[in-house]
Amino acid sequence: MALTGLFTVSLLNASRLYIAHSGPIVLVLFSLGRLFTLGLLCVAGAICLAAQAFTRSGPPAERTAPLPGWAKPPLAVLGSSWLGIGTGLLVRPGSWADFVPWHTNRMDAQALGVWALTLGMGVLGSLAEDDLARTRPALLSLPGTALALTVVLAARAPHVDWSSVPAWA
Q1: How do residues 79-88 score in pLDDT, each as one tens digit?
Q2: Overall average pLDDT of the 130-142 stretch
Q3: pLDDT score at 3
Q4: What gap in Å lies between CA 39 and CA 47, rounded to an integer?
Q5: Please, are residues 86 and 120 in contact by the beta-carbon 8 Å criterion?
């Protein structure tokens, strides 16, 4: 979903890329390479999904370890929050970009929206799956996501509005 969303956002905002107007050759080639790579990855992902759909896998494994009851409400809030913010950033990037604690343009806001939407769907999907053994890799990625966001905030520290609620949230 993330690859398809990012490719779509890139195509919808192609007029803002360096390939649409003159600019340094490195940036033009980077923009072209980004579109080509995302398109190629989308095609590869579609082929893998099709191959997976036609591969016989046997009976589904039984659920062995349901999610702990205490973890479900926070995961539901987290997944719903990411889903809502992602949808807002994707559909109405102009007004929802204020929730990002640094300045973003339309394409950046929509790309962040795709990632937030994907993460929200993943967390809510793990709730629907309700099996810790099956969803362990995805749930273990949540602290990694928080760490990545911390690194982004640290790298953009001079540009972050630290008095805003989104920066501390």
Answers
A1: 999 999 999 9
A2: 81
A3: 86
A4: 13
A5: yes
Q: Which residues contact 81 (CB under 8 A, 6 or more apart)?
A: 120
Map tokens 């990012």 to a residue. 6
Strands (DSSP E) along 65-143, which ranges? none
- Say which DSSP state 156 is in: T
Angle, alpha carbons 155-161-166 (nearest 5°):
95
pLDDT at 57 over 90: no
* pTM, two decimal places: 0.78
| Cα dist from 19 to 33, 35, 38, 106, 111, whole Å | 10, 10, 15, 17, 18
Contact call for residues 83 and 121 (beta carbons, < 8 A): yes
Q: What single-letter DSSP state applies at residue 60?
A: P
Q: Identify the DSSP state of 49.
A: H
Q: C-alpha distances in angstroms, 102 versus 109, 145, 163?
A: 10, 18, 11
The rounded distance, in Å, linking the Cα atoms of 120 and 125 is 8
DSSP for 72-132 reads HHHHHHHHHHHHHHHHHHHH-HHHHGGGSSS---HHHHHHHHHHHHHHHHHHHHHHHH--H
